[in-house]
Design brief:
Number of helices: 11
Helix content: 40-55%
Radius of gyration: 20 Å
Number of strands: 10
Bound molecules: S-adenosylmethionine
Shape: globular
Strand order of the largest sheet: 6-2-1-7-8-10-9
Oligomer: single chain
């Protein structure tokens, strides 16, 4: 085992996180850049710091998890969701369960809530849950306050209805409490955690698989599709693709949407 692998094993134990699931080169790069920032000379010193210093532990997790997310990210997919997927799901179930995993700063599940609100769908008829590993990003999600970069794709009429500019040195935008109240959040390690619910109508897992090894990506696709209802949808990132999707009873429908069909 080389010095970095030794560090990775120790860090996994300290952080209670299965680092084997993530692409190794990426973790090494991210670790080294944080070490530089904190003036840490080697992996041994870094592991010791992780063990002893809670704030460094938080900084490490924060640096390691890339939280980039934005409202209406890849808008074509959201158009398809609104026109094709949501109406089909509502035909099949009186109440649809939607899971954004991982949800990062909440832009993704809130975008869904805005779309459903605009479609005039009553809150009685859906549930939206956002899950993420990173407690800091979840607290941002719950606050619902965003920078310019998160809202750049929001259409003007939607922006006027659901966002309010906050005065201050930097431009910040507050999401309306009506939309905020439609989404619940939970802290969850998707790799190690157990999936309690097994009746999801729509699972959105975008820009997460890109960080995982091939093996863990397949494990995660299986874990997600096992809890997805039959004839329902799995929505992934626009640069992602599921090779051998038939193995998971998934068939690509259009753009970034796969449909689960078991015979
Ligand atoms: C790039 S963001 C994707 C956010 C959103 N789905 C999107 O596409 O805009 C990746 C998120 O994965 C989360 N993450 C990484 N590993 C995780 C794990 N094991 N369990 C849960 N969330 C994880 C990070 O905290 C980060 O918020």
């Amino acid at each position: 085992m080389n010095e970095f692998q030794n560090f990775k094993q120790k860090a996994s134990e300290i952080l209670n996180l299965d680092l084997d699931g993530y692409k190794e080169k990426r973790i090494e790069r991210r670790t080294k850049s944080l070490m530089k920032r904190y003036d840490i000379n080697n992996f041994k010193e870094c592991a010791n710091r992780l063990k002893k210093d809670i704030s460094f532990r938080e900084a490490y997790l924060n640096h390691f998890t890339i939280n980039t997310s934005e409202f209406f990210r890849n808008p074509k997919n959201y158009d398809y969701l609104r026109k094709e997927i949501i109406p089909k799901l509502l035909e099949k179930s009186r109440k649809i369960n939607i899971w954004s995993a991982p949800c990062s700063n909440g832009s993704e599940p809130y975008t869904i809530a805005i779309i459903l609100e605009e479609m005039g769908i009553n809150y009685r008829n859906y549930n939206i849950l956002g899950s993420d590993l990173d407690p800091e990003i979840l607290s941002t999600a719950k606050k619902g306050i965003y920078s310019e970069s998160s809202i750049k794709n929001v259409p003007k009429d939607i922006f006027n209805k659901y966002f309010e500019e906050i005065n201050g040195q930097f431009k910040r935008y507050k999401l309306s409490s009506k939309i905020k109240s439609k989404v619940k959040f939970e802290k969850k390690d998707l790799i190690n955690g157990k999936f309690e619910k097994n009746d999801w109508d729509l699972i959105i897992s975008r820009n997460f698989f890109i960080y995982l090894t091939k093996e863990y990506k397949r494990l995660m696709v299986k874990k997600f599709t096992d809890v997805l209802k039959n004839e329902r949808y799995f929505f992934i990132g626009s640069t992602e693709f599921i090779f051998g999707s038939e193995e998971f009873n998934l068939k690509k429908e259009n753009l970034s949407f796969y449909k689960k069909t078991t015979s």
